[in-house]
Structure formats: structure tokens, C-alpha cells
Design a protein that fits this description.
single chain; alpha/beta; Endonuclease, Chain A; 15-stranded mixed beta sheet; two-stranded parallel sheet; 19 strands
Length: 490
């Protein structure tokens, strides 16, 4: 009897082992041939699913699969009526009036404008007015003031919307606007705002406002869409005023906290034609999640009253984009640098293309200065950031850690002439997995303002020298090694 049971157990074990082998082979083939992943990401997943068969399989099912939500891809090809008219007008000007020459005589500007405009319909706005915020309290005071003056509609899109003191401030302003008859729509990411429940917006909804969660987490632990996050920060007021950048809605962004200290970020208030791009992006994101589409009313795309003189483009990317447009923007900007590249980012986990471009720039005599946090908010991401940053020191990069708080700005400044500010970090997640939005600004004035702020940040930062980096402990080196190995999955 014992022998029979023993043989039965051996048979079961062999079948289980064979089943696991078949699953691993099948999953490996799917990862290699079906999924649109980078080579490094593919190798990372192959390592995980084969070294940790059961855990790796579960992890891949949860966060590794590509997105296939038809609604997202369907809306990617749709353009709102008002925005479509602007694109049509701009393309006519492009072909008939030598558009690039009209905008700028800078060859690099022209190439980047061309790439973004032709490939992604990133509308070129030549009448943009930009106000830069580096302090959260100042940004939200301005936003709430604009909300109080809204007449037709307010569209709000954030990754994190906490219902704390700041969240209540913003919500109360939206409720007051709704009571004046202003349309109010709020779109927030279900994962980033997972602690904010639908009932927290009860008063706003009862007043007639609408609140929608992007990729709602019905079963968050087994929902593969959890890995794809709406990371954009967009506000559009009356189709004439726009906000975008790095600040989310929460108390830590406006007050000094024990965990983070002072929150250092960049955010923009813009007017001009570029607001059409923000509006178009919000409407597509909203319609992808709401059963009732926002209409194509021209009221959402009113005649522009922009009186600025800056040239800008709003660029978006995400898993619904095959071109990784923001990554391509960063790559083009890095390759265009002749003197200096300044980068602020909380997460620096570049893919091979970005990493090699920075090394090539350094070897060509271009100065590269990188500002990162001195403390983690996500441990694995931090140690991967520390590794990739430290590795650039050998090529001559200057790496600095922000010492009085947490630097969350996602900014790149090239030669003090043009810059990008937005939601996208320098990592795999921002390039491939999250829905992101950046403002490219072709302005010496704004670039110099950002440049000055960067240098001011360095006065409260500590340089990560080669000597300091090499003194890290064996434990830190181990954490770096693990983080580097799984970095394409972070």
C-alpha cells in the first residue's frame, strides 16, 4: 500500500513538473514573439518566469501582459472636431508657408517640431503664454483661483487625488463652480488614487459633477490593467487655460512632511492654442472610460485668445502608442545638445538607447548634470536609479542628490535654449507602460528660467562623487544589483 502511494506521488510530481515546464515554455514563447517589449525587458521576464516558475507565471499574468483594451486604441485615432480643424489648418500652413522656417530658424527646433507634429499630430502653438510653478502651494492657489472664475467647463485629470486638506480645497472649489452652472468632470487613476473612494466625491456628484476612475480596480490583485497607469496631470478650464506638470493633489505636495521634506516639482499654467492639445487628450482619456462620450461641441475648443509668443507642443505617449513618443523626444533632445544637458527626475532607469545617448554626449564633450532624490519613495526604483546614475560618473556626468526634500520634477533642459516639463520620468514605466504627457517649450526665456531654478537646486544638493559612490556598502551594492536586474519590470 505504501509503495502504491509512493508511486502515485511520484507520478503526480512528474506530471506537475511537466505541466510547469510546458507553461514556462509557452509563456516564454509568448514573451518573445507576441509581446511588444524591449530586449532588456524580455530577458528580465524570461529570467523571472524560468527561475521562479510559479511565482514568475503569476507575476507575469498580473503585471507583465500587454494592454489590449480596444477602446483605448480606437480613441487614439479619433480627433475631436475643434482640434481636428486646428490640425488641418496647421498642416496647410506647414505645407504652404514653410512652417518650420516661419516658426524658427533653429535647425534642431525644426527637426523636433517636425517629428512631433507629423508623427503624432502634436499641434504647434506659437501664441503660448507659460507660467512656471516650482512650489505646490503657489500652483494650487493659482488653480483654485482659475476654477473660481470658470464659466463653461472644468476638466480635471490626475494620477493621485487624495481627499485630504488640499483635496477638499480643490473639491470645494469644483462644487462651487458646479453650483454656478459650470460643467465639472474629474478623471483620476484608480491605482494612484486607490485610497480615494467614489463616496468621497458625493457632494460634487450630488451637485451635478462627474467623477470617473481610469481602469477601475474591480479585482486589483488579478487585474492586468493595474500595471498601466494614467500618470498625466491635466486641467483645462473653459478651453482657454491649461495646467500640466508633475504635481498631484495631496497635502505632501504643498506642505513640508516628515517623510519627504519639501516637495520640489515643476508645473505649468498655459494659455494659447496648446490648450487645444490638453483638451483633446483629456476628452480621449475620458471617453475611453465613460459610457457617454463628451460631445464634439466647439464649446470645448473656443477661438483662441492666447496673447503669448512662445512656441510649444504637448506630447503624449502610453501603451496605446507604438512610437514611444516621449522617449523619442528625450532622445532627440539629448542628441541635439551641443553644450549642456540638465535633467531632473525622481526615477532614472534609462533604457539602452537613452543611456547610450547620454554616454555619447559625455564622450563628445557635452556636460551632463543629473539631479535625483536622496531618499526613496519606492525602494527598488531608488536603488536602480542610484545604480544607473552612479554608472554615468565614469563618463564624466555630474550627479547630485537633493538634500532638503524630494525632487519630483521631470525636466530636461538643453543648452539653456529649449526644455521639456511634464509627467514622464526617465524610466521604462514612463516610456512604455504609463499614460504620460509632456510640454516641449522652444523658448530661451523659459529654458533659462528652468536653468536658473536647476542651479538654485544644486545649492541645496550634494554631489555624488566617484569616491562617495565607491564607498557604498556591500548591502547597497546587492540592492543595486537586484534592482538593476529587474529594472525593465519596475
Amino acid at each position: 500500500m505504501i509503495n502504491i502511494l509512493g508511486n502515485l506521488l511520484l507520478l503526480i510530481r512528474s506530471h506537475i513538473s511537466m505541466f510547469i515546464i510546458i507553461i514556462n515554455i509557452t509563456l516564454s514563447l509568448i514573451i518573445i514573439f507576441r509581446e511588444r517589449k524591449s530586449t532588456s525587458s524580455t530577458w528580465s521576464w524570461l529570467f523571472v518566469v524560468n527561475v521562479l516558475p510559479i511565482f514568475g507565471f503569476i507575476l507575469y499574468i498580473l503585471i507583465g501582459r500587454g494592454i489590449s483594451d480596444y477602446r483605448i486604441f480606437e480613441l487614439k485615432s479619433q480627433i475631436r472636431h475643434g482640434f481636428k480643424q486646428e490640425i488641418k489648418r496647421a498642416k496647410k500652413a506647414y505645407s504652404q508657408d514653410k512652417f518650420l522656417t516661419k516658426i524658427t530658424d533653429n535647425r534642431v527646433f525644426g527637426q523636433l517640431l517636425h517629428m512631433l507634429f507629423i508623427s503624432e499630430d502634436a499641434l504647434v502653438s506659437m501664441n503660448t503664454e507659460v507660467k512656471l510653478f516650482t512650489d505646490g502651494r503657489e500652483k494650487f492657489d493659482a488653480l483654485i483661483d482659475d476654477i473660481s472664475k470658470a464659466k463653461h467647463h472644468i476638466h480635471v485629470e490626475y494620477y493621485i487625488f487624495r481627499m485630504d486638506n488640499l483635496g477638499k480645497e480643490v473639491t470645494n472649489a469644483l462644487i462651487a463652480a458646479r453650483k454656478r452652472g459650470v460643467e465639472v468632470r474629474v478623471l483620476i487613476d484608480a491605482w494612484g488614487s486607490n485610497r480615494t473612494k467614489h463616496r468621497d466625491f458625493k457632494a460634487l456628484i450630488e451637485a451635478g459633477g462627474e467623477v470617473v476612475y481610469f481602469f477601475p480596480l474591480i479585482l486589483p490583485l488579478i487585474n492586468p490593467r493595474t500595471n498601466y497607469r494614467l500618470h498625466r496631470k491635466i486641467v483645462v478650464i473653459d478651453g482657454k487655460i491649461g495646467y500640466t506638470g508633475g504635481f498631484n493633489i495631496g497635502d505632501e505636495y504643498v506642505t513640508v512632511t516628515k517623510k519627504f521634506g519639501y516637495w520640489r516639482d515643476n508645473h505649468l499654467r498655459v494659455t494659447g492654442d496648446v490648450v487645444y492639445s490638453l483638451q483633446n487628450r483629456f476628452i480621449m482619456d475620458w471617453n475611453s472610460q465613460h459610457r457617454h462620450d463628451i460631445s464634439e461641441s466647439i464649446a470645448y475648443f473656443p477661438d483662441s485668445t492666447g496673447s503669448g509668443n512662445l512656441t510649444t507642443q504637448f506630447v503624449t505617449s502610453g501603451p496605446d502608442s507604438k512610437r514611444e513618443q516621449i522617449k523619442m523626444t528625450y532622445l532627440k533632445m539629448i542628441n541635439a545638445a551641443e553644450d549642456e544637458i540638465l535633467i531632473q527626475t525622481p526615477y532614472f532607469i534609462p533604457d539602452d538607447a537613452i543611456y547610450d545617448a547620454l554616454k555619447l554626449a559625455l564622450l563628445s564633450g557635452v556636460k551632463v548634470k543629473l539631479l535625483i532624490p536622496n531618499k526613496p519613495d519606492h525602494p527598488f526604483v531608488y536603488w536602480a536609479t542610484y545604480f544607473f546614475s552612479g554608472s554615468l560618473i565614469d563618463y564624466g556626468a555630474e550627479i547630485y542628490t537633493y538634500e532638503i526634500g524630494f525632487v519630483h520634477a521631470k525636466t530636461i533642459i538643453i543648452d539653456g535654449k529649449f526644455a521639456s516639463v511634464g509627467s514622464a520620468n526617465f524610466d521604462y514605466r514612463s516610456f512604455m507602460l504609463d499614460f504620460e504627457g509632456n510640454m516641449v517649450i522652444y523658448s530661451h526665456e523659459t529654458a533659462q528660467q528652468l536653468h536658473g531654478n536647476f542651479l538654485e537646486d544644486l545649492t541645496v544638493s550634494l554631489q555624488l562623487t566617484k569616491e562617495r559612490y565607491e564607498q557604498r556598502s556591500a548591502w547597497i551594492r546587492f540592492k543595486e544589483g537586484v534592482a538593476r536586474l529587474i529594472s525593465p519590470m519596475l
